[in-house]
Amino acid sequence: MEPWYSIDWFTIGQWQQFRFANSWILYTIPALPLLFLFRYLLSQGRSQKLNVSTGTYLYVNSLLGWLRFITPIAFFTGISLILVALARPQIVKEQRIEQSDGIDIMLALDVSSSMTETDLAPNRLAAARQMAQMFVKGRKNDRIGLVVFAGEAFSLCPLTTDYALLDQYIADLRENMIPTTGTAIGDALARCINRMRETEMPALADTASKKRTKVVILLSDGENTAGNLDPVTAAKLGRAFGIRIYTIAVGKVEPVAAARRDSLPDTPAVATSAVDEGVLKSIARIGNGSYFRATDAKRLETVFKEIDRLEKAPVRTQVYEHVQDFYRIYLYWAICFLLFTLFLKNTILANILED
């Protein structure tokens, strides 16, 4: 910081940094010349004059004519600086802190053999894995967990804010990591619900954590062909615990009705990877969420962005201000100018110049 006697305190750049607590006082400064004019008009013809010979040199008279304004200018400057000090120039440093309680999100990803289909480049699982990683990286203050399923469902990662760890789990997903064939959607939902229920133990959870929004994002490309729990029943259980469910159907393969497959035994093998949109839509409807269909990698990215937009925890912004006053600097300058004025008023020089 510059010393108080530095002329830098009067530069335009310095004044642009100030915030004046009583800025209205500055508007009184232009009125000061009117007071000087009023004083001059009142004193016209009343003051005594002392005639002093200054010689015949023109430049001397001209110089004395200008010097007679030093005293009123010094007095005007001193009073103006007092008004500046009263306006309280300040430099305010603002700090914003954003806080959010976040939400709980469980990702349920299908890793069955049908996820190796290449209608999403490079394949369905790789595309889902990449988009899930992008989704996790874009979250803040949220606890996210991971459940994987095929013929069985396993909780791979509990709810955590360690996004680097979760990213590694997602990157390691492979289609053969669960040997049991099939697609157990109901069991996957049950695993997600149990993980979220574990965070609500009365002895461990406070009131704020109980009120956290809870979301399941289920991504699958197949029908519910395995597991011990019906998906609709699991969705109703989730709704009872206040859990919102989003479902994403992956793949371009159009669903083939079960009745048609029974009547057409020679239906091509591709029908085994058909998407059962009916059950996924029912799960989303019961779970107060939304159903999405991702027919390519770009659409899958859009789906995750839409869910990211819908599921945002409210953010509280706290603003801290560090206020530093600088009125003393201008008060010191004002005292200097007023003392200078008093000095001039008590010298014969001032009397000569005024007369």
UniProtKB/TrEMBL annotation:
SMART domains with a match to the protein in the record: VWA (SM00327)
InterPro entries: UPF0353/GerABKA_families, VWF_A, vWFA_dom_sf
Domain of life: Bacteria
PROSITE patterns associated with the record: VWFA (PS50234)
One Pfam family cited in the UniProt record for this chain: VWA
Keywords linked to the UniProt accession: Cell membrane, Membrane, Transmembrane, Transmembrane helix
Ranges of residues in domain VWFA: 104-307
Sequence intervals crossing the membrane: 24-42, 63-87, 330-353
The keyword tRNA-binding is assigned to this record: no
Keyword hit for Transmembrane helix: yes
Protein name, UniProt field: VWFA domain-containing protein
